[in-house]
Amino acid sequence: MKGAIKMKFILTIIFIIFILCNILSAQEYRWIKLPVPDDTLFGTRSFVNIECADSLNCVAFIETGRNKDFQLMRTTDGGRTWKIILEQFDLPGDHRGLAKIDYPSTDLLIASFYDTYLFRSTNKGESWDTLYFKEIGIITATYMYDNKMGLGVGVDDSIKRSKRLYHRTSDGGLSWKLMKEPPDSIVLAYINDIQFVEPNLLVGVNPYYGSFKTIWIEGDWDSYSIDTAYLSVDYHPRDVYFLNKKLGWVCGGRKINDLDYSHLILKTEDGGKKWITKRDTFVNTNTLKDIEFINETFGITCGGEDVFVTTDGGENWTDMNIQTTVLYEHFHKLRIISETCAYVISFDGIYKYTNEVMSVEDEMPKSFSISPNPAGEYIEIAFNSPRLKPWVAGVDAIKIFNLLGECVLSVAQTFPSVDSGQ
User: Fold this and answer.
1) Is 409:400 a contact under the CB 8 Å cutoff?
2) 339 three-class SS
3) Helix (H, G, I), strand (E, B) or coil at 12
4) Which CA distances in Å does 81 have to 138, 151, 361, 400?
5) Distance CA 132, CA 138 (A)
6) Residue 318 CA neighbour count, 13 Å, CB half
7) CB atoms within 10 A of CB 421
C-alpha cells in the first residue's frame, strides 16, 4: 500500500515537472525557420525581401529559377501557411522584372516593376489592378507613408535610366504627379532604402559616397530639397532607420582593405548633423545590411551570417545566434513588429522571432493514436496509412524521449505491411 502511494506521489511530481517544462518552453522566444513551400518550376529560389502590415500579414518577394522570374507569397497567419498571390505569368507581355513591394496596411499592397506599370491590391493580393503610367515613365519603387500619401521613385527611360524622377501620390497610388526636382537630383540615383520619418521628411543613404541624405518635401508635395551629410570615405552605409526627426541609426560597414569590412553602426540624436559610432567590429567580410528599431531602446540589425539585438538604444549589441538549417545563411532584410515578434530574411528562407509553437498539424495524420493512454509498460502507436508509405511524410523514425531530454527509443518507419507498431 505504501509502495502504491509512493508511486502515485512520484508520478504526480513528474506530471507537475512536465507541465512546468511545457509552460517555460511556451514562454521561450527563439528564431524559427518558417515553412515557406517551394513551388518553383526550376528548383532554385532566392528570398529578396519581406514586408509586413502587422504580425500576421506579410508578403515575401522571391526570385525563382531564371532571370526576372519571381513569386509573391502571402501569409495571413504569421507564417504558418503561405499562398502565391503573384508571379511572372500574371504580368502583361515581356516584363522586365519585379523591383519592390510596399505593404503599408492590409488594405493596400503595391508591386513595382522595371516597367511602365504598377500592380495594386486592396485585398491582400487576392486580386490586382494594373495601373499604366507610360506618360510619366517607370516607377521602380513606392514608399507609402499611409494608405493615401506616398512617394514614387522612377527613372527617365529616355536617358537610359541614369536620372531618378520623384513622383507623389495622394490617392494610394492610383495616380502620380511628377515633383519639381532640385539642381542636384542626379545624385538621387544612389539613395538606398528611403524611409518616411514624417509626412514631409524622408531619409536615405548613399553607399557609394558614404553619405546620409535628408529629403524634405516642400509645399503641397510639389517639390523637394535634399541635405547631404558625408560620413566618411571609408564608410559604406547600407540602411538607415529613424524613430523621429532627431533620433536615428545607420548600419553598414567600414572598409578595412579590398576584401574586408567591419560591422558599422552609427547613431544620431540631432537629425543627422552629428553621428556617434556605436559599433565598429570586424566579424567577417560582410557588412550589416538592415537595421530597425521598435522604440528608443529595442532594435535589431542583420548582415551576412549575423543578427544582433540591442535593448539599450544601440550602446551594446548581442548576437542572437540563430540556429540555421543550412551551412551558410546570408541575412539581409528584417522587419520588427514588436519586441516579441520580428522577421529576418536570408537568401534561403524566412526566420521568425517568436515563442509560438509553429504547428505541423496539417502535416500530421488525422488518425494518429497512442494507446493505452495513460501509458502502461507497453504502448501502441497506430496510424491507418496507405501501405508502403511512412506514417509521417519527411520523418524517418519515431523517437521517444524521457524528461531529461534523452532519446530512449528510436524506431524506423519500416512497417510496410502493417498499420501499427509496438
Assistant:
1) yes
2) coil
3) helix
4) 33, 32, 11, 28
5) 9
6) 7
7) 15
User: What's the CA gap between 196 and 240, in Å, rounded?
Assistant: 11
Task: Name the nearest CA neighbour of 263 among 232, 303, 296, 223.
Answer: 303
Q: For residue 117, give the C-alpha cell.
A: 506599370
Q: Cell 495524420 maps to which residue? A: 365
- The CA-based angle 50-54-112, given to 5 degrees, is 40
Q: Cite the beta strand spans of 311-372 per DSSP E.
A: 318-319, 331-338, 341-346, 350-354, 369-371
Closest to 31 (Cα-Cα) out of 349, 398, 366, 400: 349
Q: Which residue has the cell 526570385?
A: 63
CB contact at 8 A, 163 and 156:
yes
The secondary structure of 52-64 as a DSSP string is ESSSS-EEEEEEE
d(CA 225, CA 201): 10
Instruction: Kindly report the pTM of this predicted structure.
Output: 0.76
Residue 99 DSSP class:
E
- Residue 161 φ/ψ region, left for φ over 0, alpha for ψ in the -120 to 50 degree band, beta for the rest: left
Measured between alpha carbons, how far is 291 from 251 in angstroms, rounded to an integer?
6
For residue 168, what are the CA distances in angstroms to 45, 135, 142, 202, 230? 33, 15, 9, 13, 27
Host H or E run for residue 230? strand 223-230
pLDDT in tens, the chain (422 residues): 555 555 555 555 555 555 555 544 445 778 999 988 876 665 678 899 999 999 999 999 998 876 678 899 999 999 999 999 998 878 877 677 888 999 999 999 999 988 878 999 999 999 999 988 777 778 888 999 999 999 988 876 555 545 677 889 999 999 998 888 766 554 445 677 789 999 999 998 888 778 888 888 877 778 888 788 888 878 889 999 999 999 999 999 988 887 788 899 999 999 998 999 999 988 767 889 999 999 999 999 999 889 999 999 999 999 998 887 766 778 999 999 999 999 999 988 999 999 876 544 444 444 455 666 656 666 666 554 444 344 444 455 666 766 656 677 776 655 444 444 44
Residue with cell string 495622394:
170
Answer yes or no: are the C-beta atoms of 204 and 249 closer than 8 Å.
Answer: no
